[in-house]
Amino acid sequence: MLEHGGRRREAAARFGIALADWLDLSTGINPRGYPPPAVPSEHWLRLPEEDDGLEAAAAAYYDSTELLALAGSQAAIQALPRVLFPATKRPRIGILAPSYAEHARAWRTAELSAFGPAGIDEAIAHVDGLLLVHPNNPTGHRWPPAQLLAWHERLAARGGWLVIDEAFVDTTPELSLAAHAGAPGLVILRSLGKFFGLAGLRVGFVLAARPVRDGLREALGPWTLSGPSRFVATRALLDTGWQRETRARLEAEGKRLERLLLECGLGRSTGCSLFRYVECSDALELHRALAQQGILVRLFDRPAALRFGLPADEREWTRLAAGLHALARNRIRIPT
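The structure assignment produced for this chain is given below.
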């Protein structure tokens, strides 16, 4: 199993700080997510049914009816290799590095080629599939939709696939290819875990042509989503007022985090509205120094970097600022 953010219990045991005393900024999840409504008892007592309005709400939100609801995009990540390439022993798959590690793990039996953003255009000619996280996690790199569609056209012309994980695109919906879902050779993954902050709900969607959706449905089996999850997800997808206000708030807070990291000597960061990413040679030392103050951020080792999620309120902003200023005063960081 790969490590992910949000491992507060492990950090509490390692650093001897009570679980309740941690400021967890390690996940990139909206810390002020959609407030879940009360779930009527019928959704706990009956098997979930697909004509309950979830698919219609998702179609309106994603601007596409070519979708399949499932228990988080992770379920699709693990099933897609055998659905897209059932008769190919070792498909050639291109993947960005660094990026969300579960994708590379799911395709570990394929012939994997990892490259940076500058290497994608050349790699298209040599792969059967290209897998991108957009905006990329953890770097926040993004591409114009026209560029993505051009790469998709080149791949699809020879039977290849473009798979795009849009887990963090909700704050910038203009970057999404969801409206193009259903085109041959295109698979889009979406989730309610990041922007909506409903990670524990485990709700995701695959937007793709029917053969892909049918293959995933067969691979994953019935009732992949619980009734309560479907109920809450439907309400969240329909609440356009909350979505509009949250996008504006997250944009402002993402810029605030960027400024704070810069003024505390961590240099320029990249990312999106939900997180900021900083490459630094002493990332391990900084991670440990923050953890000793009960501040948990995400550590990466190749390249050495830290990813900071958003604080939830002013108390947490003040605590993060104090922790970062303490590092700056102690000259812990070695400039790169």
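Interim note for the steering committee: The longest strand covers residues 186-191. Residues 8-34+241-329 form a domain with the Aspartate Aminotransferase, domain 1 fold (CATH 3.90.1150.10).
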